[in-house]
Amino acid sequence: MLSKSLPLLALGALAYAQSQVQEGAPASVLLAAAKSGVIPATPTATPFTGVDTIQGAIVSPLPPAPGYLPGETGGLLGTATASTNQPVSTYLAVLPQVQYNPFVDSIVSGSIQAVGGPQGVSFTVNLTNLPSQAQYGPFNWHIHALPVPENGNCTATMGHLDPTNRGELVMCDPSQPATCQVGDLAGKHGGKIMTNGSFATSFVDPYLSVQMESPGFFGGLAFVLHTGNTTRITCANFEAVNGNATASVPSPTGSGTMPEFTGAAGKLEGSIAVLVGGVVAALML
């Protein structure tokens, strides 16, 4: 059964995000090696080079805040809090067998299982049929701030889950995971995917949680896979499987509407990104 409360929460989050808009979206730019928003590589070998884009451009309209500067720890709201002794609740994100991104000629299959436990959340990641590394890699992977809607639009998931407001101007230091964005799975657990064809890994993350009252709760939120220049390839929601999990959302049923832009979602005063007129502005440096 679909949760009636979660979509309302998502709409509330979107309304809050829109109310926090500090300025309009930047103008379109030409996605190229010199202006790609890619950290640290540029998309010189991908078909996205030369595409008009709003996301993915190096756009930083606001001066860096202390939590965004190298050498600082955590985000504007400090570091993430570990959640131990979690209930044995299971969430599963299964990638849909639809092609969200028409520029990528393969449909990624797989799942991400998450189970609460004494040390945090145990994740098991299995992905197959990855696109060509030479053309599209390496692949970044995160938990985002909002669910995938029923039309399958991965852009609607907005930015990374980031309750401490770390932002994306400074890369995650895996030796200090509490200072990273809570949803930055790649940053904390092995980096971008650099293997050909398939990828499998498992790890425990104490900063994510299966408990709704936790800032790190990800039930109903989206797992998103990106190309090397941050374009979104595929996405799926974490749905409750068993235990005392209390939230689930519908799986995407269509390919959605492919946006004209690429990249990671924008950064705000709060922990979620802003959708401005259907366009999310990336604040990357």
3D architecture notes:
- The protein is mainly beta and 285 residues long.
- It has one domain (5-242): Superoxide dismutase, copper/zinc binding domain (Immunoglobulin-like).
- The chain has helices at residues 5-19, 133-136, 185-188, and strands at residues 29-30, 52-53, 90-94, 109-117, 120-128, 140-143, 199-205, 222-226, 232-237, 239-242.
- The strands form three sheets. Strands 7-5-4-3-10 form a five-stranded antiparallel beta sheet, with no helix packed on it. The protein has a three-stranded antiparallel beta sheet with strand order 6-8-9, with no helix packed on it. A two-stranded antiparallel sheet has the order 1-2.
- A hairpin with a 2-residue loop joins strand 4 and strand 5 (120-128).
- It is globular.
- Mean pLDDT is 70; it is low at 1-11, 13-29, 33-43, 51-71, 246-251 and 253-285.
Topology:
Elements: H1 5-19, E1 29-30, E2 52-53, E3 90-94, E4 109-117, E5 120-128, H2 133-136, E6 140-143, H3 185-188, E7 199-205, E8 222-226, E9 232-237, E10 239-242
Antiparallel strand pairs: 1-2, 3-4, 3-10, 4-5, 5-7, 6-8, 8-9
Q: Can you summarize this structure?
A:
With 285 residues, the chain is mainly beta. It is built from three helices and ten strands; from the N terminus they run H-E-E-E-E-E-H-E-H-E-E-E-E. A five-stranded antiparallel beta sheet has the order 7-5-4-3-10, with no helix packed on it. Strands 6-8-9 form a three-stranded antiparallel beta sheet, with no helix packed on it. A two-stranded antiparallel sheet has the order 1-2.
